[in-house]
């Protein structure tokens, strides 16, 4: 009886997971397929031939849209946010290992932006910059808006990491004569490096595809999500699908590269 019940539960979960995967990747697969439309193809099925015409069109002069510029801005902004998120989250994780006055209030203050609607934060930052006489731009106000989204996640992840980190390793290093900096560099940092890379990847991806918090803070020049959204109202060729395919492939390459780096570090640590 128990075997039959477990088998039934397995099939229910398998069906649910299959439906979830189809719901998640079904629309994406449609975009990928339509990006290979023939030269005379449109924005809907059926395909009118197969070609790479629209991928080549991405590198040509466009009447509407700035693919290259928006991608570069999103990439640079993502890297900036990633670096700051990793550094600040790491420092916050180290600081909160010791109890200090006001730690609870500071914690809730740091994660409060997660419960505030993103568009409200974007609007508030944009209005604040305008009132102070500064021109909103993706590398100033947009950068700050993205940090209100990525830093709380980074801090929460580092808290979870250090809650499971045993101080016995640091005590052993200090007993052997290591200084505080040597203990951090040679003991703590190598052990938390894989999850720290994960925090960096999380910060980059959250910034790279953020729309709501960029809407009122990007200034004159669009980031890639804003550019794609703007193109949906005036682009009538599958070049938009080709752009979606290329950016999706780039995202998967970033994730695969990060996972490969983490696996390499784990193997190296295992050999050591």
TrEMBL record:
Protein name: ABC transporter permease
UniProt-listed InterPro entries: Bact_Polyamine_Transport (IPR051789), MetI-like (IPR000515), MetI-like_sf (IPR035906)
Location of this chain's protein in the cell: Cell membrane
ABC transmembrane type-1 domain segment(s): 71-258
Cellular component aspect of the GO annotation: plasma membrane
Membrane topology value: Multi-pass membrane protein
Keyword tags: Cell membrane, Membrane, Transmembrane, Transmembrane helix, Transport
PROSITE patterns for the chain: ABC_TM1 (PS50928)
CDD domains attached to this UniProt entry: TM_PBP2
Family that this chain belongs to: Belongs to the binding-protein-dependent transport system permease family. CysTW subfamily.
An individual GO BP term: transmembrane transport
Transmembrane segments: 12-36, 75-94, 106-129, 149-166, 187-208, 239-264
Transmembrane found in the keyword field: yes
């Amino acid at each position: 009886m128990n075997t039959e019940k477990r088998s039934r539960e397995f099939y229910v979960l398998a069906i649910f997971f299959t439906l979830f995967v189809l719901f998640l990747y079904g629309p994406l697969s449609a975009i990928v397929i339509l990006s290979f439309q023939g030269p005379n193809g449109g924005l809907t099925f059926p395909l009118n031939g197969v070609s790479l015409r629209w991928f080549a069109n991405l590198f040509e002069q466009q009447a509407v849209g700035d693919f290259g510029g928006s991608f570069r801005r999103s990439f640079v902004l993502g890297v900036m946010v990633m670096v700051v998120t990793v550094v600040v989250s790491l420092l916050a994780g180290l600081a909160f290992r010791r109890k200090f006055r006001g730690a609870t209030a500071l914690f809730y203050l740091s994660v409060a932006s997660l419960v505030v609607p993103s568009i409200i934060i974007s609007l508030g930052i944009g209005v604040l910059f305008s009132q102070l006489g500064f021109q909103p731009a993706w590398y100033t106000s947009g950068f700050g808006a993205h940090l209100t989204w990525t830093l709380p996640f980074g801090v929460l992840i580092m808290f979870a990491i250090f809650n499971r980190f045993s101080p016995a390793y640091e005590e052993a290093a200090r007993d052997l004569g290591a200084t505080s900096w040597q203990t951090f560099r040679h003991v703590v940092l190598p052990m938390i490096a894989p999850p720290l890379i994960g925090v960096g990847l999380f910060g980059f991806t959250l910034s790279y595809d953020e729309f709501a918090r960029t809407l009122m803070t990007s200034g004159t020049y669009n980031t890639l999500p804003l550019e794609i959204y703007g193109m949906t109202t005036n682009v009538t060729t599958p070049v938009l699908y080709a752009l979606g395919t290329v950016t999706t492939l780039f995202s998967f390459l970033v994730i695969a590269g990060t996972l490969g780096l983490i696996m390499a570090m784990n193997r190296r640590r295992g050999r050591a």
